[in-house]
Amino acid sequence: MIKQLFLFFITTLFFATSTLTFAQKKTRGKEDSISFKFDFGKGKTEAGYVKVVPETTYTPEKGYGIDFATTATANSKEGKQPLTDGYLTSDKPFYFSVKLPEGNYHVKVTLGDDLAASETVIRAENRRMMVNRLQTENGKHKVVEFTLHIRDSIIRGGKYKKVSLKPREKDNYQWDDKLTLEFNGSSPKVNAIEIYPENSSVTTVFLTGDSTVVDQSNEPWASWGQMIPAFFKSGEIAVANYAESGETLSSSIAQHRFDKVYSLLKAGDYVFVEFGHNDQKQKGENDGAFKNYKKQLEAVIEEIKKKGGIPVLVTSVQRRKFDENGKIVETLGEYPEAVRVTAKEQNLAMIDLNAMSKTMYEALGEKESIKAFVHFPGNMFPGKDKPLADNTHFRPYGAYEIAKLVVKGIRDNRLKLANSILATVPEIDPAKPGAFEDFYWPLSPLKEVVKPDGN
């Protein structure tokens, strides 16, 4: 009786406004967390799992299902074992959402087909790369696991109540009350999903910054912050991206984005700070790299340290602007240098993304570097009849290459965080970026294209 009351109490805490009915079971080794298990497709249902079929659409009352008007189909022939005898698939990307409270979660996905091959891409929330390309051979299955962070805009236990969201953010998939997974690829075949809260030993890496860092919601834009989760080991690191387009350091402070980070920050967590693109447009008497910007940067560092967090300063990534000699023109004024000076004064880790991106662009050259940025002919994306020529914001290939430079910076600074980078990630040389033709990125479902704030 006591055990039943305990389970009821935990369930009520997690889903106070939901009539969620999917399976709940104690999981060993994860602080006895409650787990959420789904068995996809036709066939037998694995014990302790809830069946998900094409008709299982998301509703707030149910709390799980296929979401955002996307669709999937089920297998026509059944396999051998209950957990893998069926799957959901689609020739277009589809979303699956689960109503969950804010926190870090461990996700385990079983993929494959008893009767054929498969190829699956998994993204989370706003196109956050978790698994970029997983292939299974005919009759084989694979299990992938990753850790991710989901959040809401409420600030708990602080002076301020909420983050001041921009109107464009309110339709995003990362400020709501659910975890959303996007399944993409040439032949995705999802057998099962298990989700449970991560234990407190997981380190959270908070990202703060502007449009070059944020999880961009719309194709064809992307940023390094949404690519970097795929470089870390599951069960060790959760990347929490609190950057937003158009932000300056001062506006992020004023809109309580940093207050939100402070409210979640625990000892040993990291906070990466990269601003500058929009800050340089501020022209007040006290504005400037070595005036308010540096002063506010120092204040942010102090607050992070108070919480036991580890600040990591990141210099502003370069814009794409070449001179007649094929060299990058510096467009960010003194802001990168202000970051370098502050890091040296305070003996902090500093990732010189400004210097490394310069090397990378020049290695690509003026012509090839276009492929790293949002340059497209007209009429390729909804509502964009004119060509796109954006030399600040990246397309997915460019964002991925910049994320690699951040990984190099983590290693070069010998941060403890470097121990959680996947062993399969090779040494990275900014002068030798990956080839555009080798990068795989099937488009996420297209929405009305809105250029990110900032420049």
If you had to describe this structure to a student in words, what would you say it looks like?
The chain is of the alpha/beta class and 455 residues long. Helices cover 21% and strands 26% of the residues. It contains 8 helices and 20 strands. The strands form 5 sheets. Strands 1, 2, 3, 8, 11 and 13 form a 6-stranded mixed β-sheet that branches. Strand 17, helix 6 and strand 18 form a beta-alpha-beta unit. Helix 5 packs across helix 6. The radius of gyration is 22 Å and the shape is globular.
In short:
This protein has helices spanning 2-14, 224-227, 249-254, 257-264, 289-306, 335-346, 353-368, 396-412; strands at residues 23-27, 33-40, 50-52, 64-67, 73-74, 88-89, 94-99, 103-112, 118-124, 128-136, 141-150, 178-187, 190-197, 203-209, 237-241, 270-274, 310-314, 349-351, 373-376, 388-394. The chain has 455 residues and is α/β, with parallel strands linked by helices.
